[in-house]
Design goal:
Length: about 230
Amino acid sequence: MCGFPAPTDTVTPRQPWGRERAITGNRQTSWAFADAYVAEGDALRWARDRARAAGLRSVSPATGAALGLLAATVDAKAVAEIGTGTGVSGIHLLHGMRSDGVLTTVDPEPEHQQFAREAFRAAGFAANRSRFIPGRALEVLPRLADSGYDIVFCDGDRLELLDYLAESLRLLRPGGLVVFEGVFAAGRTVDSGPQPTEVIRIRELLRAVRESQDVVPSLLPVGDGLLCAVKR
């Protein structure tokens, strides 16, 4: 478990099994509705197709919409992305950013970044709206400017999550956002059974963000879980 303390002053009666199934079904229906709420255009569909062909996992449409909303909320001009993939999350971020904003995106696979370039172009974004840096995130991030970013979006190696958090807090301006995707790990994060190392790292990240005095955190139940934190 993540070590989140449960309330001790109240006891919630256990719902009958039929009621539990109804709640679960309603939630699944609601999540499906959220994923279908924001229409995705041809460029995003093309990028998703490339991701599936390459065996990559893309953010859900609802997660992408949330990323765009967050970028618009902070009026983002500079965003750093860990994990370019084929450009799905990048398109959503660019849609929410200022018209003169630049997305700096890092990925160890140049071939994936080439797909993202094509997807960004098809989505109507000028070439100067994005900066592609091939390489491992923990080798690239130290070269980026301190306090130079409005958002850092992390969708990279789950074994490096705590390192991403440390780098993100250095890169962000006060009031900037760090965002981690996939923190539910398809339900494994809250499963009490033995889990692989990557899930243990997610639990450590959740605990570190919750206990940090440097951020204001929130865990959003969209897609496979979106952990957000504002730098104080």
